[in-house]
Amino acid sequence: MAKAGGERMLVSRIEEGTVIDHIPDWRADTVSRVLRLDKLARMQADISVVILQNVSSKGLGRKDIIKIDRWHVDERDADILCLVFPGITVNYIDEGKVSKYAPRVPDTIEGRLRCPELNCISNAEREPVTTRFVTLKKESVLQCQYCDALLGFEKVPDHVRT
Ligand SMILES: [Zn+2]
What we know:
Layout (H helix, E strand, L loop, with lengths): L2 H10 L4 E8 L3 H7 L2 H7 L4 E10 L3 E9 L5 H10 L4 E6 L2 E5 L6 E3 L21 E5 L4 E4 L5 E3 L10
Antiparallel strand pairs: 1-3, 1-4, 2-3, 4-5, 6-7, 7-8, 8-9
């Protein structure tokens, strides 16, 4: 079987779930971290995750693919991923039917990231508030609404709440 056919076969095998495609090669681990897939797998015992790395791709040369069986990645999480990897594509699969979701840079992000400023009220041990970042798209940074700390898009994977 041809390479492209082989890849298509792998992707189409999921009946229910999510396929994240066009991840830059060897960066699937970062996607996994942003989506907290290890935690998800502990909480939802019936999901399976398949990570394909260094797959040939027409547009990218090489790419990674993550398939998550029986789990739909939250669109807001897909949007956070696109801060780090603007080229990713997300396919949701229901009963074998694929629908594409094009992630887009969100205007605000609530609750999913930690503020890099340790003294921020959102990092308070007692009565912490929900984090809220506003996206400054031109500068490719997020700004904390409480303390104005800046977080570059590329640093987002290090600040995902666990
Ligand atoms: Zn802050």
